[in-house]
Amino acid sequence: MNESHKEDKDSRLTVLDELLQTLPKETLPVKAIRVGPFLTMVCVGDERVESSGCGLASTLATHEPGRKNLVREVGTLEDLTAQKLAGLLKSNFPLEASIGLAALNAILEVPSSCYEEKPAIEMVFERGRNRRVAVVGHFPFVKKLRQEVKELHVLELKDIPGDLPSSKASEILPACDVIVLTATVLMNGTYREMLPLCDRAFMVMMGPSAPASPILWYYGVDVLAGSTVVDPGACLRAVSQGAGYRDLKGVKKWTWKRKN
Predict the structure, then answer these.
(1) Count of C-beta atoms within a 10 Å radius of residue 176
(2) How many CB atoms lie within 10 A of CB 151?
C-alpha cells in the first residue's frame, strides 16, 4: 500500500469503506435492478443528468435448500438511493453484495482514456512471459496463459480439476511476479487476505465486477479492467435472460493502468 496514504487513512476502514466514501453526495435514484444467474446489473440516475449510468457485477449466491435471506427487503430495493444500494457491498449475504457492487459500478465514472489503453490481458501475457504467475478465479484465458509463462497457479473457491483451493493463497501468491485477481474478491470478503499477499507482484484486477476507482492503487493494484454498459436496454435483456460475460450485449471493455 502507498505509505503516505497508509499514514492518513483510518486503520479501521476497509477498501470497501473507502470505495463507498468516494461516491458523490448528490442523491441518485435507482432505476432498475436485474439479478441473472451469472450477472447482476443496476441502473441509476436520470437520463437528464450526466451521472446516469449502469453497472455490472458477477452474481454470487448460494442456493441451499431452506436457506433464507438471500436478499433482505426484497422487492423494495428500488426505493433506496443509489448510494444506499451500493452500501450493500458490505453485506454478509453474497447476493446483496453483488447488487451493492453493481450499484457502485453504476455510479463510478470511467475516464475516457481507459478505452484507449492496451487490453489488460495483453499486459498479463507480456509481464508474465517466463515468470511465475497466479490467477485467482478461473478465467477463460487460463489454458493459453499456461503455455506462455514459466509457472502458473490457478486458485479457485470452486472445485475445478487442475486448480488449487483458495486456501493455498498464502503459500502461492507471495512468490509470484504477476497476479490476476477476479474482482469478486471484493464481494466474497477474500480481499482481506488476498491483497496483502500480492504487494510485491504486478497485480491486475479484472472482470465485470471491477470498479473504476483509483482507491485500489493504494492497495497494490496496478491495472483495473472492467466493462461499461453503453446500451442499457440490450444489456438488461441479456442479463435477464441468463447471459454470461462472454455472451453479454451492449458493453464496452476498458483498462485503467496506474501511473507511476
Answers:
(1) 24
(2) 15
How far apart (Å, rounded) are the C-alpha atoms in residues 59 and 193?
A: 21
Same domain, residue pair 51 and 150: no
95 and 119 both lie in a single domain? no
Determine, yes or no, domain membership for 207: yes
Query: What whole-number distance in Å separates Cα of residue 49 and Cα of residue 27?
Result: 12
Residue 230 backbone phi and psi in degrees, to 5: -105, -15
Q: What digits encode the pLDDT tens for the residues 4-43?
A: 343 344 445 799 999 999 999 888 999 999 999 999 999 9
Based on the domain organization, do 15 and 70 belong to the same domain? yes
Q: What is the pLDDT of residue 47?
A: 59
All residues at 6 or more sequence positions from 154 whose CB lies less than 8 Å from its CB, including other chains? 134, 135, 138, 142, 160, 162, 163, 164
Q: Classify each residue of 195-208 as buried b or exposed e, where b means 16 or more C-beta atoms within 10 Å of its C-beta.
A: bebbeebbbbbbbb
What is the pLDDT averaged over residues 212-222?
96
Range of the domain at 189: 113-228+253-257
Please state the pTM of the whole predicted model: 0.90
- Residue 166, all three cell numbers: 483458495
d(CA 246, CA 12): 38
pLDDT tens, residue by residue, 97-152: 999 999 999 999 999 999 989 999 999 999 999 999 999 988 889 889 999 999 99
